[in-house]
Amino acid sequence: MNKVLSQILKYLLLIFMLGVTVSVIGWLGWTAYSSYLNPPAEVKVPDLAGKSLSDAENTLKSMGLKATVIDQRYANNLPPNSIISQNPGQGRTVRKGRQVELVISLGSENIIVPDLNGKNLREATIILENAGFRVGKIDQKPDKTKPLGIVLDQHPIPGAPVQTQGSVDLIVNSAGAADFLVPVLVEKQLSESHDLIQQANLKQGSINWYWQDWIPPGEILKQSPAGGKRVPPGTMIDLDVSAGPPKGALAVSQRFFSFTVPKGEDPQKVTILLADKMGTYEVYSGNHLSNDEIRILLSAFGSAEVEVRVNNQTSKRARI
User: Fold this and answer.
1) Cβ 201 vs Cβ 168: under 8 Å
2) Which of 133, 162, 175, 220 is 20 to 30 A from 113, alpha carbon to alpha carbon?
3) Maximum alpha-carbon separation in the chain
């Protein structure tokens, strides 16, 4: 009797397990049928470009889609929180519930307009291009108190914050100073001459030293062109300078010195100092652009050292 009962229980357990298996298979089959034969509804992604973020979110929500912001960028032609791009793109067919990735605008980025006043047209063009602008309309205006070809005015004005890196209009000097008055340098000290020459819109030329028994070292003996003469802007002024009484075998040497302006934010101020037995003095100063070649004639007593400073920082040292 017990043996028969045991057999019946085994059959009942087997039938139960079979029923559970069939139920699970049936549930899986129904799920697959529901997923693949009855997929979620599909919609076409709308065009969101240019819409505000809130409008885009509402549009997607009404279609059963979700909005996700993945990036923000400056865009000069779109106000803040406007849609720049989307993924998936317009017209793509997707299932409801899909996320649509959005890139939104931060608006226009303000750029400061550089100061171009006093720069020549070449310098102004390079400065504008480095800042992301371009030269716009160029008008001419005569001003005989300033060098020919320099920028007299600009629009937008220097320092103005603008929202687009567009063009800058220039007014350039069309007449320029016909000539400048050469300062009288004779009997002045060489240390004074540089500022006087620069203030007159002229340039330092060669410096030649001569032994003089009765004239103190550093005093200017002669200049060319002569003081009081009118010359074009940028004319080189050559000087003869007293070296004082002869000092044994100390010799005057002359040689050309060349320097290439390194890359940097243009224009760059270049200053050249010369140190010899007579002391240390400035022999050149001017504004230059990257890769400009400077070549000047140097005169020195005995061994000498040249120091080149770019924007007040030592860039090169050399012995001559």
Assistant:
1) no
2) 175
3) 150
